[in-house]
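Recall from the previous chapter that SMILES is a line notation for molecules. Here it describes zinc ion.
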Amino acid sequence: MRIKFWGVRGSTPTPHLENLRYGGNTSCVEVRLGDNLYIFDCGTGFRALGQQLGQEFVGREVFAHVFVSHFHWDHIQGFPFFRPLYERPNRFLFHCSSRTRSLQRVMEEQMASPFFPVGLVEMQAQREFYDLDEGRLSLDDMVVQTAWLNHPQGCMGFRLETKDGVFVYATDNEPGDPIFDQNVRKLAAGADVLVYDAQYLPGEYEAGRRGWGHSHWREAVNVVMESGAKELVLYHHDPAHDDACIDKVVKEASNYYARVRAASEGMEIVL
Ligand SMILES: [Zn+2]
Ligand SMILES: [Zn+2]
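With both inputs in hand, we obtain:
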């Protein structure tokens, strides 16, 4: 399994000099398992992944499963800029919950006039939509487990159980609710790699950010230690956290748990 990070920022893109080492693009992670391609979220990092796929698959079909955790901007904003969606014979299978709205409708509205100059009809790739709820499903050679996280309008976490190892993508989750706290630890149990929401510093969270749907690095450390996951990847960095701040967070977190790093654009993990 190869995991590659294309967008690691939360809330809004931050393409500023002081952020460029970790990166300014919003949520998008690529997972390759053999020849199979899985994508988690379609923030602005999704655009750069599309460029790379365009170069790799010249004259060949791009086929991918795309998992969308929820519909906040930082998880869907790259969608209209993902070139492989405009080209035949590419094929994309989208998986997400339609509890609040269907993804198809979200895409139509996102590209409707006067918000975007090109209509959804221009997207020539085949698109299929699958509704997910909490549970387990077999897909290709793996099992995908989903769980609801604690976030305004909901957010879904994903666990891939594969022959190469277990990958968990759990972003946009606020601690403090006993059921959700248990859900996320169960989802992460024994994972080889846990990608987890570490948007805030603990002090920031306490000082006025409760109820906004996000976690902080200290809770990320709690989750990795209590779930028995092996490696923690801090993810969904706050727009106000520059490279120096994230370096400091990693240093502090590693005083509690050794196998921790912060997600950065272009970073790859091989299992
Ligand atoms: Zn987000
Ligand atoms: Zn969100």
